[in-house]
Design goal:
Helix content is about 10%, strand content about 55%. With about 90 residues, the protein is mainly beta. The strands form two sheets. It has a three-stranded antiparallel beta sheet with strand order 1-2-3, with no helix packed on it. A hairpin with a 2-residue loop joins β2 and β3. The protein has one helix and five strands.
Length: about 90
């Protein structure tokens, strides 16, 4: 069993901390429990594009749900970035 509880949220710094609790059961009996603190930082779509541009990438595309050039429009979509770095 996995229980995920968000214990910190900082929208300004774009960070969250979750406490994950893992339980292993066998024949209806709890035999092991583990706790994990999971810090997560996130970037927005525009930030990722700016970071890629800043380190020299061009022809940056973002595609939603693994469909090439399907423009992301919903918060829950999986977004894939592709970019090309010019040869020197």
């Amino acid at each position: 069993v996995l229980e995920d509880k968000q214990i910190e949220v900082n929208m300004l710094e774009q960070k969250t901390v979750s406490l994950l609790k893992y339980e292993k059961w066998k024949n209806g009996e709890l035999i092991k429990t583990e706790l994990q603190r999971l810090p997560v930082s996130w970037y927005g779509c525009y930030e990722i594009t700016l970071l890629l541009e800043k380190i020299g990438y061009q022809e940056i595309t973002a595609s939603a749900d693994y469909k090439y050039l399907n423009k992301p429009s919903l918060a829950g979509q999986m977004i894939t970035y592709e970019a090309r770095k010019p040869m020197i």
